[in-house]
Amino acid sequence: MHELPECAISACRPYFREARGDFVVRKEFGYSWKVYGAGIEIHIADYLSDAPDDVLSDFCDMVCRRAKGQRCPEPPSYLDHIRSDRYIVDNRPTYIRRSRNLLRSACGEVAYLHDSVQRLLDSGLLTESDISNSYMSWTRRDNVRRVGFCSTMFRVVGISSRLDSDDVPDFVRDYVVYHECLHLRQGYRPSRRVHDAQFRSWERLFPQWREAESVLRRLGTA
Ligand SMILES: [Zn+2]
Predict the structure, then answer these.
(1) CA 115 vs CA 112, 122, 172, 177: distances in Å
(2) Could you tell me the distance, in angstroms and rounded to a whole number, from the CA of residue 80 to the centre of ligand 1?
(3) Residue 210 Cα, ligand 1 centroid: separation in angstroms?
(4) For 133, left (φ over 0), alpha (ψ -120 to 50), or beta?
(5) Nearest CA-CA partner of 152 in 104, 95, 114, 222
(6) In angstroms, what is the span from residue 65 Cα to ligand 1's centroid?
(7) pLDDT at site 126
(8) Which CATH class is domain 96-221?
(9) What distance in angstroms lies between residue 124's CA and the mean position of ligand 1's atoms?
(10) Predicted confidence (pLDDT) per residue in 111-161, tens digit
(11) How far away, in angstroms, is 37 Cα from ligand 1 center?
């Protein structure tokens, strides 16, 4: 893998005498560090390999502070970069390629995910801005416990192919799609609770949420 550039290494020098690191291939974005003697070794997922110098040096500054045990939030330059349409459009194809469980199609055997999205838009539960620059697909595996997931970083929603079935009513699919699209509305916000009170209050706006959850529970135990 390729080494971190000089701007990243020099951002570590105020904290560590020696620094080295590289970009590594990961499906999910992440990073790790190891402190050795007076030095630090940092591994960052390669999604950041094209980031501007200031983003990388601010990011490494954060990693070093955390390695020193300081509480340090994600730097604004990093958050702006990650949340930009450019970053998402450039990196999402890689994320999708690495997500082996994605069917890479919103069109299932019996249901089309964008029909659910359209109903949610028509009813006013979702707005166009919630789902802007997003990607939606069925999964390959028919997981019954994890019926959906959302990568807020890459704005990708996956819905379990277990729900692509005649025995699942439309409103249940709509409810699961709605839940995942609410994560898109929240956006990328690391180190914050995802299912917070705000999220739950949005979720309860879905008229048949109780029935939908009981259908999902039955699927999970069938
Ligand atoms: Zn969720």
Answers:
(1) 6, 10, 13, 10
(2) 23
(3) 16
(4) left
(5) 95
(6) 30
(7) 98
(8) alpha beta
(9) 20
(10) 999 999 999 999 999 999 999 999 999 999 999 889 999 999 999 999 999
(11) 41
Distance (angstroms) between ligand 1 centre and the Cα of 149 equals: 7
With 0-12 CB in 10 A as exposed, 13-18 as middle and 19+ as buried, what is 96? middle
pLDDT digits (tens, 9 = 90+) for 35-94: 998 999 999 999 999 999 999 999 999 999 999 999 999 999 999 999 999 999 999 999
- For residue 33, report the distance from its CA to the centre of ligand 1, in Å: 29
Q: How crowded is residue 17: how many other Cβ atoms within 10 Å of its Cβ?
A: 10
Cα(117) to centroid of ligand 1, in Å?
Answer: 17
**Where are the chain's structural domains?**
6-82, 96-221
Per-residue pLDDT at 183 exceeds 70: yes
The DSSP secondary-structure symbol of 163 reads G
CA-angle at 152, arms to 147 and 156, nearest 5°: 60
pLDDT recorded at residue 222: 63
Find the 175 Cα to ligand 1 centroid distance in Å: 11
- Half-sphere exposure of 149 toward its Cβ, with a 13 Å CA cutoff? 16
Tokens 């994600």 sit on residue: 74
* Gap from CA of 181 to ligand 1 centroid (Å): 9
pLDDT given for residue 24 in this prediction = 97
